[in-house]
């Protein structure tokens, strides 16, 4: 499922979408809030520029919105339907879940967005520019 070459591997690990050999982020820990979105300029293995064009990752805001809605709905279903919590407790569960997962959602949205435009190239195909 998370084998090298799959988009899911690149999305969940935050690795370069083209070669999947290195993390796109300077700090791999998403809970290090001061450097949560600090990215390397290029991949040291394949030379891919992560910032494809100015303001490229603005489109990731739409992906982030979708992820937050999906996570909120999932938290509500688990809390209200499966755990039989009250409506108020369910909304507290949604807010708590979204706050805890906030750093991951930020990175996942960027990872999903860049993987929409760049595909994996097996070794031998990706030459440094």
How does this model look, in words?
With 129 residues, this protein is mainly alpha-helical. It has helices at residues 7-13, 60-82, 87-117. The two termini are 31 Å apart.
Quick structural gist:
The chain has 129 residues and is mostly helical. The protein is 47% helix and 0% strand.
User: Which oligomeric form is depicted?
Assistant: single chain
Low-confidence stretches: none
Rounded radius of gyration (Å): 17 Å
Largest sheet: none
- Average the pLDDT over all residues and give the rounded result: 91
Global outline:
elongated
> Which structural class best describes the helix and strand composition?
mainly alpha
User: Percentage of helical residues?
Assistant: 40-55%
Keywords:
3 helices, 129 residues, mainly alpha
Topology:
Layout: H1 7-13, H2 60-82, H3 87-117
């Amino acid at each position: 499922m998370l084998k090298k070459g799959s988009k899911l591997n690149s999305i969940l690990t935050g690795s370069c979408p083209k070669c999947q050999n290195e993390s796109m982020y300077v700090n791999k820990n998403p809970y290090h809030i001061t450097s949560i979105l600090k990215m390397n300029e290029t991949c040291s293995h394949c030379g891919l520029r992560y910032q494809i064009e100015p303001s490229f990752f603005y489109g990731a805001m739409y992906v982030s919105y979708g992820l937050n809605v999906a996570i909120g709905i999932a938290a509500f279903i688990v809390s209200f339907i499966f755990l039989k919590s009250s409506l108020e407790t369910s909304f507290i569960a949604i807010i708590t879940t979204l706050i805890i997962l906030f750093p991951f959602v930020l990175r996942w949205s960027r990872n999903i967005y860049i993987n929409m435009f760049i595909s994996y190239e097996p070794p031998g195909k990706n030459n440094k520019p």
